[in-house]
Description:
Elements (H helix, E strand, L loop, with lengths): L4 H9 L17 E7 L3 H14 L4 E4 L15 E2 L8 H13 L1 H5 L10 E5 L2 H17 L4 E4 H7 L14 E5 L3 E2 L2 H14 L3 E3 L4 E7 L2 E7 L2 E10 L5 H6 L8 E12 L7 E4 L4 E5 L4 E12 L7 H14 L8 E11 L6 E4 L5 E5 L9 H14 L13 H4 L16
Helix pairs in contact: 2-7, 2-10, 3-10
Flavin-adenine dinucleotide binds next to helix 2 and strand 12.
Amino acid sequence: MRYSGLRVIAEGLRGNRGWKPVWREPDPKPEYDMVIIGGGGHGLSTAYYLARNHGIQNIAVLEKGYLGGGNVGRNTTIVRANYFLPGNQEFYSHSLKLWEGLEAELNYNVMHSQRGLINLFHSDGQRDAFVRRGNAMITQGDDAELLDRDGVRALLPYLDFDNTRFPVYGGLLHRRGGTARHDAVAWGYARGADQRGVDLIQNCEVTGIDISAGRVTGVQTTRGAIRARKVGIVVAGRSSQVAAMAGLRLPIESHILQAFVTEGLKPVIDHVISFGMGHFYISQSDKGGLVFGGDLDFYASYAARGNLPMVEHVMEAGMTLMPMIGRAKVLRSWGGIMDMSPDGSPIIDRTPIDGLYIDCGWNYGGFKAVPASGWCMAHLMATDHPHEVARRFRLDRFATGHLLDEEGTGSQHNLH
Length: 416
Ligand SMILES: Cc1cc2nc3c(=O)[nH]c(=O)nc-3n(C[C@H](O)[C@H](O)[C@H](O)COP(=O)(O)OP(=O)(O)OC[C@H]3O[C@@H](n4cnc5c(N)ncnc54)[C@H](O)[C@@H]3O)c2cc1C
């Protein structure tokens, strides 16, 4: 079924009796050509592009819970291509281009809104760093504009410009940056993959990976054994645990990141604002809630919930930047498990086991990567060669020292 405005009107006139389930609920088959472990954004987009770009249809996505119940439905929805380092730049640039055509591609409203992202700076040194970043973005073919203090004030008049510790000096505006409705991205890719014959199997946890003579042969699941020629591990915060089923030790730590949303308010923030010094970022959802987040909880954990000290820290950062936020009531907060790599950049690569592939290390930036990650992981699984824009996301870079440390933080997982 194709979705359109006309269809909505026609269904409205017919009492909405013609809508069909968005995807099938098949039982797992005993064997597939390819199995993707994890029904988050990256797993679903991988399956979609395997079918769309490479014509492979005998694929299953195995999800231990429900589709989109992981980080893809828990993030603060920011989509951008403002990376600095070669390796990251071309990948996120490719991803943003895919975002820009995604709704037409999937025939699904993912509510992609290019409302503009502003990264604030608070010193001469920080301004120089953003000038360099902006030049790198423009060289890559993306957009960047340097705003002085008055330029920021014209767009964001409600900020505290004269904060004693972090006075606002200006900002880097990335007009094509913005947000998208996170669940819809999972649902859109799920629907597209299902329409191309992919089996989406929910409530199916992978409990073991079968290997024979150095080659993957299938997986054990809570719904029985499934044979497969190739298996992709795409489980974000659970990457270390699932890779351990194949005897692999990944350079990944899992940490919690929390997010917050206020009651619905009239339109007040019409950009995405990033306040790096307070590690605080905020936008307003289409329902009116102010959606914001901060830093990691700083200790490794698999519990998808946060702690009160970080709540206090994030609220303080918000009050520092825009005291008006103190008038809003916070409705809820939640946590997601981040797959933090030592250099803050991802991994899309083969593993030492033939037929076993890994896509992980998205840190807290993997939502914007969903289209390109699926595109590149599908390319890798179909051809056994890395895609050009993901060629630096190698698993062995931690052994060779060719790190992709975007922030210059050093190799400590929870600082990225
Ligand atoms: C609070 C928060 C804010 C964020 N904000 C942003 C942002 O603004 N912009 C941005 O770009 N990124 C952001 N991120 C990061 C982004 O959400 C993640 O990097 C990305 O969603 C991870 O990839 P995924 O969607 O595939 O993960 P997930 O949705 O977590 O998918 C992994 C799936 O694997 C499944 N799984 C795990 N183990 C097994 C198993 N054994 N068998 C079967 N299935 C299994 C899980 O149930 C899960 O559904 C944020 C994350 C959080 C938590």
